[in-house]
Structures are given as C-alpha cells and as structure tokens.
Amino acid sequence: MCYDRRPGRSCRQTISPEAADSKMVAEKVNSALRASRYGWATTVSKSGFSIKISALSAVLLALSACQTPDPGITSFSAQSDEKIGRLMPRLVALASKCLAGTGKPFPQYRVSSELNSLSGQPRILLVRRDDTQGLPGLVILGQVQDNGTALSVFGRLLSADGDRSVVRNVRSWADGGTDCV
Predict the structure, then answer these.
(1) Where is pLDDT greater, at 108 or 39?
(2) Which pTM was predicted?
(3) How far apart are CA 181 and CA 174, in angstroms?
(4) Exposed e or buried b for every residue in 69-88, given b needs 16+ CB within 10 A?
C-alpha cells in the first residue's frame, strides 16, 4: 500500500496495510492538532473510536481552570435631578477633595476634568500623577437626560480597595451631598 498520497508524488515505498493504517491515524491526529491551533475542529476515528478535537473546547477548559475571584464592581450608574452644567463642576471639586491626593483612597492619582467635551458628555478622570496622558483609572461620565443628569462611573479603580468609597461618594454627590463619605 502506498502511504504518500500527495498530488504529483509517485509512491516509492510500499508498507503493510496495518502500518499504513497506524500512520494514517497518526497523521489525522497531527492534522487535528494543527486544526485546533487554527481554530477549527476535526474528528479522528480508528476502529469505531472517535476523538473530537476542538479549539473552542480546549480554550473553555483552560479558562475554567484559571477562574479568578469576582473582581468586584466594574461600573455603576447614578441619577441626579441637578442640571449637568451645575453638577459636573461640583463633582470635580468633590472628587479632588475626597478621592485623589495624599491621605485619600487614591493618593497616586489626580483629578482631570473634561467639562467642555465636544461630545456633549463631560467627563471627570482620575489619572496617575506620573502618567497624565495614560489611561484613566476612573471615569465619571455625565449624560444629559430629560429630568436631570445620568452619571456612569467605570474604570479599574472600582475593583481596587477604595471601590466602596467611590460608589458611596458618587451616589451621595448625585443626591446633592457635599461631604466625603
């Protein structure tokens, strides 16, 4: 039996049917492994025994083995009856007073405001003091609504140690509070 079945190749070596069968199964298994690397699946069978190899199932198995604990809050929303033009500047002052700076939950951060946003959605950012052009650790986004302002808060600092203080403070400020909670 000729094992080399590639087009344009002549069969120079003849091997027994049993050896050819084993080599074909080995080739299919190797092909299946290559297939899983490229994201598609295949089935290999020998004597009624089949193995389904799928990249998706391998990835899911790996992810389930590496689960991490709940990261905590990653975003939340608050609602305020106050107009956005009055609320956002007040939130900038309160965030500076209560969140960023020495002796506060995030001492390595500072408050940066984008109140005159071209998108019409002013933002308050907590950015690292040493990398002011980097990604913000916390974003407070204001959005105009019919009956006031909707606040969306998100960022990696919400899953940090100070996340509860951020949630309590922003909700208090949205309700008209002026103190650090």
Answers:
(1) 108
(2) 0.59
(3) 13
(4) eeeeeeeeebebebebeebb
